[in-house]
Amino acid sequence: EHFELPELANLFDEFSRISAVEGELIITFPDVSYVAEESILGGRDFVADENKIGQKGVPKGLSVLNYVVSGWGHKIIVTAPLISEMLEQHGFRVDWQARNKTNALIIAIKK
Questions:
Q1: pLDDT (tens digit per residue) in 88-110
Q2: Residues of the chain with pLDDT > 70: what percent?
Q3: 31 in Cβ contact with 102 (< 8 Å)
Q4: Residues 6+ positions from 62 with CB-CB distance below 8 Å
Q5: Taking a C-beta distance cutoff of 8 angstroms, is the pair 8, 84 a contact?
Q6: Which pLDDT band, with edges at 50, 70 and 90, does 53 fall under?
């Protein structure tokens, strides 16, 4: 989330270039899906509450989703399906993935 999408694609190209066949790549990152689900569908905004980022007159869910994109130095928002698809396009197969609330973990193997 600290890279623009073209930079992320270049990073995955480099991972592919330097990885041996059957080499393992482990990636962990914040998955915005959980934040969105909790903020919009669940009516809960733990991120805004914990970081005191809400604005008067703005629904908390909207505040936190905008902050996730622009705060903490983020340039993009990513999800496990997006990262998995990018890895596949860059010569990896996703071997395992998990999500624990706001964090995702993907283990990919170089084809």
A1: 999 999 999 999 878 899 999 99
A2: 69
A3: yes
A4: none
A5: no
A6: low
Task: Give the whole-angstrom CA distance, residue 104 versus residue 30.
Answer: 6
Rounded-to-integer distance, Cα 111 and Cα 103, Å: 25
Helices (H), the chain: 5-18, 32-36, 46-51, 60-70, 80-89
Question: What per-residue confidence (pLDDT) applies to 28?
Answer: 93
SS3 of residue 103 by DSSP = strand
Token pair belonging to 13: 């190209």
Burial of 36 (0-12, 13-18, 19+ CB in 10 A): middle
